[in-house]
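Thread: Newbie trying to understand structure tokens

Hi all, I'm a second-year student working on a class project, and my supervisor (Dr. K.) asked me to get a predicted structure for one chain before our next meeting. I've only ever worked with sequences, so writing a 3D structure as a token string is new to me. If someone could post the tokens and maybe explain what I'm looking at, I'd be very grateful. Here's the chain:
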Amino acid sequence: MALVAVDALAQKPFSDEILELIQRDELESWSAQKILTWAVGKFHPRLTLSSSFGAPEGMVLIDMLHAIDPATRIFVLDTGRLHAATYDLIDRVRDRYEKPIEVVFPDAGEVQAMVRAKGVNAFYESVENRKQCCQIRKVLPMRRYLADFDAYITGLRRDQNLNRAQTRKLAIDPGMGGIVKLAPLADWTHERVLDYVGEHKVPVNRLHREGYPSVGCEPCTRAIGPGDDPRAGRWWWESDAMKECGIHVQAEADGSGI
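---
Reply by user tm_fold:
Sure, no problem. This is what the structure looks like when written as tokens:
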């Protein structure tokens, strides 16, 4: 089943082909490489790849997309609180693939107002504060950036957490202006991702070797122990098993959630 109904999709001027592909879940049987090739042909130059540089999935997609179309744009959200290892990886990827990485920053005035009102690390005090911080540093900058695109690619996988279990390979993202959202690795396992990384010698965040399977902002990420859920190190002081920053939460996609 597609994520949104036909009447919701019709609010944007997508071709009948896109709408039919979504309703039929046509892309669910396609390989990641086939989806990326199709996306480049359909949406270039208004196509971009979103990578956090904190998870191997994004690196796999960068490597695949480089082989298909080196000109496809790549962006990363720099919240101002990233790990040094993440910045190092951004530079490694830029050098290896000889292409610019578009670094997207939050609005300085919005960050300043939040910090002055609540403090530098107010996100530890409540879920509301944490979601506000994610909204200002991640969700809003990404929404503004994607206003210039028709489609974007993400490294979401269904087994990453409960909230992502229904991720489709092709969907419309109302939270990002109603553009097309592609998740070519939705049906991949973590082991398959690591196999690709090893086989193709794809650069990854060095913190993965230190017990960080998922790397976000420095104050909101910590290493996990053996047997822990892979995302247990993200916002570990919160108890909600479906915790997200707000970018990929369908219930909050209309902007009313945080």
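A couple of things are worth pointing out once you decode it. The chain has one domain: 6-247. The chain is about 35% helix and 10% strand. Feel free to ask follow-ups in this thread.
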